[in-house]
Amino acid sequence: MTFNPNAQLDPTQVEDRRGEPTGVGGGFGGGGGFGMPIAVGGGGAGLLIMLVIVALNVFGGALTGPSSSSVPADGSAAGYNGRQVAGSSVAETCRTGADANSRTDCLVVGVVNSVQSYWSNELTRRGLTYSSADTVLYSGATQAGCGLAQTAEGPFYCPVDKKVYLDVSFFDELHTKFGAQGGRFADAYVIAHEYGHHVQDLLGLLGNARSNTVGQEGGSVRTELQADCFAGVWSNHAVQTGYLQQLTSSDISQALDAAAAVGDDRIQQETQGRVTPDSFTHGTSQQREHWFTTGYQSGDLTTCDTSKGNL
């Protein structure tokens, strides 16, 4: 994945809290309450790393609105060293697509800009309103509207304050802990998935009576698979936003590989030695690949209705 080097980035869409004190004194109880973490791996000491915290809010109901017809060779996280450089922030360093091609924190800015540009235009075209959602970069822990955001929980969208929370070290963990091949478009997929939850939130598809249902056909899985599909829809239109140059088959392979790496069945098999479908929260590797592909091939959010039928 390569950004248009002349693209002008808007770093105001990313709040850089790296290096700040966490301020974790009383109140939220480690992310409890509305933004309670969802364990990706089922049972026992399953991993708490995840791609989303949505307070167990899930998809239930039809989509609203009218239907519609120079990068490192190894894809490594260039420019990220685990903490904010003193006196530096994305506001100062992430100005152009060239910056996004050389720094991972600027990659985040570029992807956020592209994702929000697409969804703003798409929802407006459908007569709907898109409200911007900032991404918060942090290291270790920070306070979120849903509680305490911690690195171990992975990236997530908080519907309380309408923000995405991300410790960029997760991009490395996607490879080292989950066995994904990694790469820059794998990172982009993670971000686009979280913004998929923001779109669900704007469309009124989060927070209903089925919000605590897990299992292979449960509401939580349906929500996560729809967010994967929305990430695929953005991928189809990403170049049109002007931020990215033409995607390659390798880019899409990176996204699919990342989606498969965080499938419930794969994580459960590797962490507990067995697969327990009744505890699924995100979907199998095959399902996650399928729904990203559905969105990518169609480029149409109305193909992402995971509320009915078999997944």
How would you sum up this structure, described in words?
- With 311 residues, this protein is an alpha/beta fold.
- It has one domain.
- It contains nine helices and six strands, in the order βαααβββββαααααα.
- It has helices at 90-93, 97-102, 104-125, 169-176, 184-202, 219-237, 249-261, 264-272, 285-298; strands at residues 14-16, 134-137, 141-144, 147-150, 156-158, 163-166.
- The strands form two sheets. Strands 1-2-6-5 form a four-stranded mixed β-sheet, covered by helices on one side.
- Strand 5 and strand 6 (163-166) form a beta hairpin.
- Helix 5 crosses helix 6, helix 6 packs parallel to helix 9 (285-298) and helix 7 (249-261) packs antiparallel against helix 9.
- The longest helix has 22 residues, at 104-125.
- Mean pLDDT is 81; it is low at 23-87.
Which characteristics define this entry?
311 residues, 4-stranded mixed beta sheet, 9 helices, 6 strands, globular
